[in-house]
Amino acid sequence: xxxxxxxxxxxxxxxxxxxxxxxxxxxxxxxxxxxxxxxxxxxxxxxxxxxxxxxxxxxxxxxxxxxxxxxxxxxxxxxxxxxxxxxxxxxxxxxxxxxxxxxxxxxxxxxxxxxxxxxxxxxxxxxxxxxxxxxxxxxxxxxxxxxxxxxxxxxxxxxxxxxxxxxxxxxxxxxxxxxxxxxxxxxxxxxxxxxxxxxxxxxxxxxxxxxxxxxxxxxxxxxxxxxxxxxxxxxxxxxxxxxxxxxxxxxxxxxxxxxxxxxxxxxxxxxxxxxxxxxxxxxxxxxxxxxxxxxxxxxxxxxxxxxxxxxxxxxxxxxxxxxxxxxxxxxxxxxxxxxxxxxxxxxxxxxxxxxxxxxxxxxxxxxxxxxxxxxxxxxxxxxxxxxxxxxxxxxxxxxxxxxxxxxxxxxxxxxxxxxxxxxxxxxxxxxxxxxxxxxxxxxxxxxxxxxxxxxxxxxxxxxxxxxxxxxxxxxxxxxxxxxxxxxxxxxxxxxxxxxxxxx
Length: 503
What we know:
This protein is mainly alpha-helical and 503 residues long. Helix content is 68%, strand content 1%.
């Protein structure tokens, strides 16, 4: 039975009663995300319309509606959800700042401003994350320079902007099977869960030694953080939810887990001797970077080209699929998401800010910790801008002391939401074995190859092969149904195939 939920409260109540999230919002076949218009009036909110036309008509209506939603629904839960993606954002930001000399203060200001814009224009907690492949290559054993990192980000942004502005991304989205997108979400969620667990429990990514138990950033803190998240964020067992369906509900008070953990982390960071020694009032003066051809070529070849498929798939296609699942009344459109990724980096990277994009994992993370509107992202953006203006890059030493075990627990918890979104999929995916098989192939290859792009190619190939086999079998059955010599000829061919196979 299809259910339409008109408010977040009703939606949450249905989920608590064991109904799970509503699958009817996903398409049963075809591409990953339908390009139908939103149910809200005037929600055709495109970044091209925002930047290149006057603020009138549908765009103005959408922004006004989003503002009303943010104003009316903002609560502690929204503030808590705004911090859900710090487990991905902070470690890569700090790594690039320490190793490559990335301008921390400028990055905070630019990403904060973009958080506010995306909050108003999308109306959902659309995340801003580092471009992970670029960051990974930059922090590898053969690191990139800051100019090479910026060149890679500008290259990706130009391509994504063109694909989005021209509408090609919508065509690609329509022909992308849902099962491959769900498989990428599951695979990426598993990869992030492993990264979060490693960050929380081990002293290095090689998993060579566990953290000490009772140090400032030790196992006891990781386990305590995990228990807080489980107690406050994990779904109820179905039997418990069913027993309270027809009775008066009594629930424990909701604890904003992310807020508690972030405050705890900053307290522990401030407890480090001389933690505030480097703090200085005032923003960092941004510097306009100049690139030469060799830096551009190195950055594009080593990091830009590998990042491009991840941005197209995870930061555009997959994030739109997740938005349609979690926010069926307000889904993001591929064209708008791609355009925003291109524009924001083309304006900020030249000043030494970190290349960023949207991401399915980040959207699931914000949702998992309570974010339901763009107000959560605006809240986060306001704090970023404030800290960037007040302290600039002098915050680096203090942020570097933030406990990694806390960030790891938050990342692990958020990755579970992304995996759950991938597993829910569409009604067709829930009933057809072939769809489940494509999902599992995509997820398995994504994890094994450590590449969303490789997983997508294998999943797409598997889907095409199964579809071709089904069409051939249908054709053979139709010929057999016609009877006569054609049926005899087909039976003879099948017999020869069986003999050849047995030999």
